[in-house]
Amino acid sequence: MISGRNRHLLTVSCLIGQGLFAMTDTDAVFILAGGFDARRISSRLKGYVLSVEKGLSHQTFHVLDCHDQSIRASGRVLFQISDELKLVGDGMVLAQKGRAEGCFLSDLTAGPVRDALGDFPKLRAFMRIGSGVMSTQDLSVLDDLQKTQVRGVLTTLTSERGQACILTFGRMKGYDRTFKLLRNNIDLDVNVGLKTLCVTLFPDAVPYRAKPEIRLGKTEPSVEVATDLIHTFLTVARQNEAGLLANIDTEFLHDYRVSLRRVRSVLSLFKGVFSERQTIKLKRTFSDLMAPTGRVRDLDVYLLEKYNYFKLLPPSLHEGAGIMFTMLEDERKQVQAALCRRLRSAKYNKHVSATLKLFSDASNFELGPNAQLGAYDYACALIWKRYRKVCKRARMITGETPDALVHDLRIDCKKLRYLMEFFGPLFDQIAFKRILKPLKKLQDNLGFFNDAAVQQEALIDFIQQRTNTQHRADAQLAMAVGGLIAVLDQRQKVERARVIANFQNFDSPQVRNTFRSLFHQKED
Amino acid sequence: MKIIACYSNKGGVGKTATSVNLAYAFAKDGNTVLLCDLDPQGASSFYLRVKPSKKLTEATFFEDVERFTKSIRASDFDGLDVLPANMTFRDFDVFLSRMRNKRSRLKKALVGAGSDYDVIILDCPPNLSTLSENIFKAADQIVVPVIPTTLSERTFDQLVGFFEQKKLPRKKIKAFFSMVQQRKSLHQETMESMRKQYRKRFLQTVIPFAADIERMGQNRAPISIYAPRSQACAAYQALFDELEDVLVSKR
């Protein structure tokens, strides 16, 4: 198909082309599952020949994403090919130098790929979703004079589980008609889209979901709802273990803890579903699982805030803050290592597997008096009660109320939120969103208030632990800590002052009506 | 933007081969190049396998910028575009003046389409007409292939005379000896005498008479594509280097 003369041209186009589906002015990107049949396409292009360069170049590729695969969810795929990043999607290919695995978005060098990934989660690191070998070949559509009218690159991706192709074509000036002819003919039946590409190559790499959808029936016994929820959350927790052990980013531990906290909330909020004895036993199991993670998470929070802490302090106190953060980083290494040892142990794995198995069947438990209540009625009663409790507490708060009562309000709001999330699938989603929004706003406010308080306590603890018997501490360290405490106290006061306004927003007649109509209809 | 006209008032001197090989050399050096095929026979388009555009012969053509930009064709080589033959001389005058004018709609359209060319190479038809005069005025360099024979010597004299008569700057003329057969004493003698007579007009490079160059019509590609190690290929590269030096020193 390729004449001797023409081979010269192809060699040159290969040399001067940018290779690897990397034409800068790429105008069309096609994704094909399986191989590419050039002959079939060629036979459709009347008067033209689609020729494929014979020489192949092979390279290893890695597909990168974060744990929940947000790039894939946006319909794109990020490739790492030696020290180059390529983002395929939106009908185009972007490329820039650099490596991303193990990095955060902010670590990437500036370039078109980084710019296009602006919505990538800030706290997530890029990790390898799968790898394989890619081969690239130049393509050209030739007319009867063997003149190239469309140039392209065929990239064949092969993983252990499958094969897919990425075809890119660039327009050549003056040959738009041929380009359109080719595009229409490929679009016809073989273009499958990027989402299929990942499924074809890495069928096992199922995206992680921190809040999987749980199906609930309105009359499902509440004990089954409880076990379903716990089974799901424990499974989610386990999905974070590998990333936690590999120390990829702090979100793995965070999600691990959030999932376990959800389990514990089910146990404490679903009153009377399990027998009292059973509830105590289960609560113990999960608090034991969570306890060793607390310190690592606290340190993560401080370390993530490092930059902001420095911003809060005048430069004269930066030296002390530097010392403090070095100490915190060292401690984090130690506690993380201890946590990893625990998570790797056979004892832990056996224990968690057994617990998970236990929750696959509600009949494994001693039941309480509410076990057989229908989910919907049970949910309405729990949420309505908690809502009234939140309102009662909040309405009593004035400027003079002690901080402790504000903390209690925060915890009640959290419980209300959890209940609404657990039973969410049973209710009208639109009405739900309307009341969740002001609740979230109030919770954020209370969360900041709490963070400022907790951090002050932690800083006081920190300096006390580093004080000798004569109550003396390193001056630089003490000044930095003192400075931070002062700033955090100011912040806490600001947040405190906003609580009343945020609650009033939540306590609007509309929200009240919605709560009533959703959860308290029957008694009207 | 630099305009290089490839011109000879005598046919069959290797003008089109020079245009194509020079255009390719400029493109390979990282420039964006537009090769304008003004020869009604369309030989440089033929060498690059670009078919002439039918629309180009229509009279209203240059009134319409968009249609003009659409007639430009990408060659098979990065950075090298071709404006195929079949342009009327009047059209080309308009084209040249618009290319020179930064504010013309044509220029803006080209910049907008990402095709603001670094170098424009004109493959000119072989006669001394009003068009030629305008080309001589517009071009930065006029590359003239000369076969070292008595007849060519006469036509070159005519060209220089034309420049004098029309008060055109003669230093734009960059002549070089083409299709040279070193074994022919006539060629040697003619070259010697012409270099003496037109000391500043001739470049050092000499393009030999070579079968590799003649084969361009068969291969329909620049010579460095199919005979990269040939003497002829080296000669065209040297010609490019020499012209490039002149252009750079003028900047």
Write the layout of secondary structure elements.
The complex is a heterodimer of chains A (524) and B (251).
Chain A lengths: L3 H13 L9 E8 L4 H7 L4 E4 L4 E9 L4 H4 L3 E5 L2 E6 L2 E6 L14 H5 L10 E16 L5 E11 L4 E9 L4 H12 L6 H8 L20 H18 L1 H5 L5 H19 L6 H15 L3 H11 L1 H7 L5 H27 L1 H13 L16 H22 L6 H21 L5 H37 L9 H32 L2 H11 L5
Antiparallel strand pairs in A: 1-9, 2-7, 3-4, 3-7, 4-5, 5-6, 7-8, 8-9
Chain B lengths: L1 E5 L8 H14 L4 E5 L5 H5 L17 H7 L1 E2 L5 E4 L5 H12 L4 H8 L6 E5 L6 H9 L2 E6 L3 H16 L7 E8 L4 H13 L4 E7 L2 H4 L1 H4 L3 H4 L4 H20 L1
Parallel strand pairs in B: 1-5, 1-6, 2-4, 2-5, 6-7, 7-8
Antiparallel strand pairs in B: 3-4
Summarize the structure in words.
The complex is a heterodimer of chains A (524) and B (251). With 524 residues, chain A is α+β, with helices and mostly antiparallel strands. Chain A has 19 helices and nine strands. In chain A, strand 8 and strand 9 form a beta hairpin. The longest helix of chain A has 37 residues. The radius of gyration of chain A is 29 Å and the shape is globular. The N terminus of chain A is likely disordered. Chain B is an alpha/beta fold and 251 residues long. Chain B has one domain: P-loop containing nucleotide triphosphate hydrolases (Rossmann fold), CATH 3.40.50. An eight-stranded mixed sheet of chain B has the order 3-4-2-5-1-6-7-8, sandwiched between helices. Chain B is globular. The chains are: A alpha+beta (524), B alpha/beta (251). At the A-B interface, helix 1 of A face strand 3 of B.
